[in-house]
Queue: 2 jobs
Job 1
Amino acid sequence: MKFKIVAFLLLSSVIVTVGAVLSVMKQFNVTNASTTAPAQVTNAPIIATSITLIGMKGPQTTNATTVWVGYGISTDGALGVAVPPGEIRTLVLGEGRANFVLSNLWFDVSTANDGITVIYDQVK
């Protein structure tokens, strides 16, 4: 019986350790100087399990107007998720989707140099 308990504890430790290194929370700010063309959040193919967006162009700097966000859409005026100044939006994966790719995330601004803070759980 002691052997089974020790084996379970060792196996549990390995699973927790492995799980802990599979993803890392990160964040960055990005702005868009153009009011006529959406900007890509990043051109790096970063894979994430979750994405949280905040209507801020920098630390402690709220946007002047709403920023519009779209996933896989880069057409001006067609982005459908509104992120009002200082507010938070979390993108949720649809049924059957494994992960987000941050290079597929675009944002549009009405006021030049507004932006978003992107917080994501990066897959390692």
Note: The two ends are 37 Å apart (CA to CA).
Job 2
Amino acid sequence: MLMPFRMIYELIVFALQFAFVYGLALMGLFAFFAWLIAGYTPDIPVFVEPLSELICERLEGCALFPEATTSEEYCPDCIRR
């Protein structure tokens, strides 16, 4: 007997769901456009070449001298290949 009121209620609920879903979609679209306009460029990693080819062949490692000015003084026990 109260079918017209139920139909109006369901239309209101559908309109609220529609507004919520499409509101989220529009916010996502605006965020995507803002990201494009901002000119986002990802940082490209730069690989640094090693200064020298010092390889330590000792199992326990080398004694390092951090105050050294050259690579030979930094690790005197390493073997240059």
Note: DSSP finds two helices and two strands in the chain.
